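Note to self: keep these together.
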Amino acid sequence: HVVPVFEREWQKERAKCHRYPKQASRQSQSSDKFDRQDAKVLYNGPQAGGKEKSELIEGHKEEVEIVEGSPKKCNPSLFKALVRCFWHLFAVSAVYKLCQDILLFVSPQLLRLLIAFTKDKSIFSWKGYLYAVLLLLVAIIQSLVLHQYFHACFVMGMRLRT
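Structure:
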């Protein structure tokens, strides 16, 4: 079901591009600068014979009319279509990675508490067991979340290749 979803998003992107093509800005007759490659220039003066357009334009600006620029081609964005099609997989992968990164910072803090427990003999022993169990649970959860992150990335990669 990946191909029909992408096809629909790609057609939307193409339709949007055909609806709103980029137009070159129209230059006024009194403008001193214009892009000679993009402009369609009409000269209606009596001295048109044998002279180049640049000579005619510089000497007789009032007789030159710049009709319109050639329309720029609007290319549909493949990246935008892919993001609209697979945004939910990007978001889920980002959440998994965020959780895994947060758990990376929790483990050293628990280890610090466990080391502090071993130095102080007056603390109850159940706190030491609690720190050890929490350290184990954080490592297990971190491993599971990282596995889910990689799985989501590989699924997204396979769907992108489809």
